[in-house]
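Posting here for the record, re: S-adenosyl-L-homocysteine.
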Amino acid sequence: MRMRNPKYKDDVLNNCTFFYHKATGFSNDNPVHLEIGIGKGDFILNMALANPNINFIGVEKYSSVAAVAIKKIMNYKIDNIRILVMDAINLEDVLDPIVSTIYLNFSDPWPKKRHIKRRLTSPEYLKVYDKIFNGPCHIVMKTDNDDLFAYSLESLSEYGFHFNVVEYDLHQTEIPNIETEYERKFSKEGIKIKYFDATK
Ligand code: SAH
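Prediction output follows.
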């Protein structure tokens, strides 16, 4: 998600006290869940508020967008969120194997064939995730996009994942769900939300 830099961007980034550093990390041994592409941060913030015994790391490529999320998170006194502003392809350089679940919410579909490697469920990224999981690999995905969903089912399956849950209309199920900004927008337009939960 590219957007114009908000006026407060530098101020917010310079004063953010919860960037993730290997040295500081978290002060407890609770499980660590990672969201890649946090956008404006509604999902990670509400997940962290609802699950105080889980640590959340949010990764976002664009600092303009991350600043919006960070500004929101700063309004709360919570110590179970850390943020990384970077491309997830380099996560291995920054994280030890500490992650138990990865969330991919409304990831960029990269529809063109020559951009397949950029999809967050391509083997290129799955290889990186392997390096940062601390046990069984667990990926949970939500998307509006049929093609990305079909591609991801195939890609993960070829990579050795099995699917615990596959749903083509998440909001018609009983699966507990915290909405993202894109999810609100797409479901208002009548688009069904696709969902899977996969383990390897
Ligand atoms: N999860 C949010 C935003 C979805 S848009 C929501 O559901 O509302 C996808 C987001 O992923 C964008 O903010 C984009 O900048 C980010 N993103 C895409 N590729 C990324 C990558 N390789 N590493 C980190 N963030 C990425």
